[in-house]
Amino acid sequence: MHRKALDIEVSLGRFEGIANQCGNLGVIHARRGDSGRARESFTRAREVFGKLGMSQAINMVQSLIDGLPQQ
Questions:
Q1: Distance (Å, rounded) from C-alpha 31 to C-alpha 35?
Q2: Is 11 exposed, middle or buried (0-12, 13-18, 19+ CB in 10 A)?
Q3: Residue 19: enclosing H or E segment and its boundaries?
C-alpha cells in the first residue's frame, strides 16, 4: 500500500509526500527485520526532507536510521 502511495506521490511531484512514504516504507522494512532496505528508505526520506529544508523531519528520520542495527 505504501509503495503504491509512493508511486502516486512521485507521479504528482509531491516531495513532502514522497519523503513521508519513504519513511513509512522504512518503518515497515525495519519491523520486518530488513535493516538494509529500511536504511535505504530512511536515507531517501532524509534526503528529500533536506531538499525541502524540513529540519525537524530530518532529525526524526536520522534518529530512526541511528536506531537500526549495524550491517
A1: 9
A2: exposed
A3: helix 15-31
